Amino acid sequence: MAAPICKSSDYKLTSLHDVQSNTAYLGDASGYNWVASGTPVVYNDEALLLTMAPDTVGTLLMGTHYVWYGKISATMTTSQGQGVVTAFIMMSDVKDEIDFEFVGVDLESAQSNYYWQGVTDYNNGSPIQTTNTVSNTHTYTIDWQPDYISWSIDGKVGRTVNKKDTYNSTDNKYHFPQTPSRVQLSLWPAGLPTNGQGTIAWAGGLINWDSPYMQNGYYYAQVKEVSVECYNPPSNTATNGNQAYYYLNSEGLESDVAIGNNNTILGSILATGDNPEFKPKSKTTDGSKPTSTPETVPGISGGGSQQLGGQQGGSNPASPSGSATPGSSPVGGGPSTFEQGHGSMTGQASTVVAGSAVALVGFFVAALMM
């Protein structure tokens, strides 16, 4: 599916008015700038909390507009505790990825990483030192240019990777993120006992659901603001409109991306880029009464809460008002495993709908993730 084109903006994340559930969003970026799974919570009218309660897989917040080169910043604090990972990443529909990841047992550094088309090259990561990521609010910036990526914290560049240094002589391609990507912020449990031992070790151990770091019954990370500055597309880009990115073929390289006025909106939650107008017919169990909506949603079966909690936090995350419970019963009966990003040393898989090439949830893996 074609993806909504980049929009430069400064987003103050102070309410849920601009956030739609991932089971309702079908690719119309004119109505909402953010899509969420799990339970984001409004905190004191000044930030959104990404929450993670026991028996859930946390919260994911995704931009509806894609970015094809640009400067993207998130002003935030992270969660903490063994097995707890906070992330600010860019992810494309062909699994190009640029990461800031924060492991809850290391509060003095941010892990920078990048991947090309989901290839799990574990030599791409590097830590960037900073001050306490939980008690101090930092602004993390990804400056993604066609020929380099830099990672900055509070305006200070901590790492730069040049595209010319990513050339792979085996397939004669640059293993460099180069396709339209979505902003994604998340809090997720890398330390689930059902995850791989490598993932658990990377995350600092098994997650503790009785941790003193939990407040009001959940772990949380706080996101105050996200800014996006769109850069011009490459000069040789095929252009026949200005509304959407789309792929000319399945190679998934920079030269295969075009810009047009293509439709980005799916006909139903079960439609795909190959069949965007698909609307399932109601099945009956007794010849007369239609069944309810599908029990699971492709690509997010086993994921966290489907609802947007909509809670209003008080002066302390431990005492929000409202009755919504962060991370209510998972879709499909609960996760068997959950891994997000490549810091967890796992591959990616395609997911559902989002007005994107294949997915609503971008990086959520059908087998291992939401």
TrEMBL record:
Keyword check for Cell cycle: no
Span list, region Disordered: 270-345
Protein name: Glycosidase CRH2
SUPFAM superfamilies: Concanavalin A-like lectins/glucanases (SSF49899)
One Pfam family from the record: Glyco_hydro_16
Bilayer-spanning residue ranges: 349-369
Gene Ontology cellular component annotations, sorted alphabetically: fungal-type cell wall
Residue ranges with Basic and acidic residues bias: 276-286
Biased composition (Gly residues): 300-313
InterPro entries linked to this entry: Beta-glucanase-like, ConA-like_dom_sf, Glycosyl_Hydrlase_16
Job description of the protein: Dual chitinase/transglycosylase that plays a role in cell wall architecture. Chitinase and transglycosylase activities are coupled. Required for the polysaccharide cross-linking at the septa and the cell wall. More specifically, transfers chitin to 1,6-beta-glucan in the cell wall.
Domain of life of the organism encoding this protein: Eukaryota
PANTHER family: GLYCOSIDASE CRH2-RELATED, GLYCOSYL HYDROLASE-RELATED
Domain GH16 per the UniProt entry, residue ranges: 9-211
Gene Ontology biological process terms, A to Z: carbohydrate metabolic process; fungal-type cell wall organization
